[in-house]
Amino acid sequence: YLFRPFSFSPNPRLFALLIGIDFYQNVRSLRSAAADAFAFKEILENHFGVPSNQIQTLLNKSASRSAILDAFRSFEDDSRIQKGDPIFIFYAGHGSEVSITANSSDSKIQALVPQNYSAEPGKEIPAIPDRTIGALLSKIADAKGDNITVILDCCHAASGTRGSEGDDSGVRSVKLTPTPIDHFVDREIWEGGRSIAIAPNFQHAGLRSHILIAACSSSETSREANGHGLFSSALLRLLRTCSPETLKYSEVLKHMDAIPGQNPQCEGVNQSRTLFNSKVVAPTRVCFDVTVDEQGKLVVSAGAVHGIAQDAEFTVFKNIESIYENPLGVFLVDTLSTFSATLQPSLDGTTVIPDGTAVALQTKAGKKEDMRLYIPPDENAAPCYEAWEFLMQGKRDFQNIALVDAPEDAHVELFLEDDNVVFIYRDKIITQHGLSRVFFEVKPLVHELSRALKSIAHFFWKLELNNNNPEVMSSIDFEFHRLGQPEFQYDDISNARAMAPIGPNLHKSGIIDFVVDDEPYGIRLVNNSGYDFYPYLFYFDNSDLSIAPYYESPSSGSYALDVPLKAHGGTLTIGYGTGGASPFSYYLRYPQTIDVGFLKLFLSTKPIDLSNISQSTPFEDSRGSVDVSKNLGDIWGTILIPVIQRRDPPNTETHCIQCGSISAKSLDLQQRTVIHDLEYKAEMLEKDLNILRQTAADVKRAHEEEVSTLKSKLEAQEEENRKLIRLTDTKANKRQGELQLQRRESFGSNHVGERSTPTTSPSKKRSWLLRVKRLIHLHWI
Question: For residues 440-449, b (16+ Cβ closer than 10 Å) or e, as one string?
């Protein structure tokens, strides 16, 4: 359990969607789903301090299919949500299992049932398939980060849902009308821009976009009683008594009250995070549960598989809330087992044996292998010695770091170069593959050095935590493939081009060696043993000292847990198929031409909490249902696989022992920098040139299309103008003819009038003569 003080820190940056449906239009109603959604709204507002305008609530009629999909989409488009802000999604209602229209033996998908679900012909409103939810969550994660928590208080499937009507416990699952769901429903959502099939089954342990906490296992039913869902009630009680800052996702179910008949599951690769926090918690200061056995001895739930060593020291407290009060005592590991250890009181001080259960904080490492460090005897290296002494004096950040006299005896050598401290690898497990330097450097400051040294010690501690059990190692097939979208290969459920292995297995002779090409990669595990295994896969990055989880089996505390990798040929795919995780891609940091990491696979016959293995790089500012009671034996093992990533295929050139860059014999950094700079610029120029060529082709094509369109419009306009001119000419000719006819008629009328009046009156003649004389007079004037 994460060792942190209990404190309440409201999180106004959290954004939530709460869905609760009791009254359905066409299926059996529930009693308490809306009440659960409202209870989560109350705890978010009043306990966590989340503003009401950051909480979307869809209850009953408002939770239609379109409203639910729109609410999911709104997270992606909400400008208030910054990258990494926590997003919380809760659903209480019916879950179901529906058929699809594919001719497949595995043609069932899981679905959430909206309030207006209908199977009536002509008025169909389908359930919301798991692939749709998965695609929406993936898009939200791309836009806003993967700090997403999804809580589902519903059943995974429709099996065993017919309880008696008089039963006080309702079942949150419904058997829908056996009408196959349209193969292409929501295709615009799940197909996306890359047309890569979304892995079906949104409750996968391997998922990377979000953490899922489900109310029950895949073969069970989620029930409600006394006004609330049994699972929601237990989770709400926990959240009211424990701060999210003290709860890791992997620990949530361990501290929840037991639920008869239900075994909740917590799934996702980021279980080492605290609730609503995207940071990986520090790997130190972890607490473990303590119980008292029949002989009255204390038993701590941590053993060899967790890296516990003989004589390790634990300080025991009554519970996590009393972690800053007086402890019950200090104990040492007496007997070490695979998954647990018995404790005996330390000789120092008094001890009190707790009643029932307690928690233990590891305070000393015990007799484990030291991380060997070499610091040159140089006065400029004084900060390095000070940082080492600072770590050795610490009580909580216990580290086994031993100074050695010669660099060849060390795991790591500190080397001063250009006013920076460089970390040189001396351990052959790394150097034999061509990398001998941590990519990043630090200033010779005590706080920066101590942080880096602590990460190095943790890195080697977990890297060297091995159990080369031949029974395990020989029974597991580990395949590493490049992924692609083979033509004519489609996912049975999404009908999109499916990601699948292409080419050979790159894991050969215990090593993965390939040229980095920005392509996706995936992993396939095959269990040929007679034991069910819980796998945990981590990637150790030697260049930045980070340890990233690739896959973690679901956690369920004391609840029963579904087995991910079953015996006798069971398979698990990671990065493609139904495994739920996104594909992996690799890159080289400039100016590296080679990088080496390690894939480390832990396999156990029991679920274990390995969330304290992960760690962020210290060089960044932002760090931070099966029968489990059956005794199959405490079996565990590890498989360590080097992953060599190259910019170019292997050749006769050697690699720089400092950074892995190609060099003949010289370590002259300036010369290497110039060469790599030119190579990098040439590569970038070639990429830019290709982009410009493509852009020019696109512009030319668009211009030609525009010219063709304008030419067509111009020709049409000219034809219209010609028609208008012809019409105008016709009208003008007609009008001219009419005017000529009018003039002829007018002239003929005047002529006839003159002949009919042969004489003019004397008065008119005089008047006419006077006007003529006046005009002549004016003319002369």
Answer: bbbebebebb
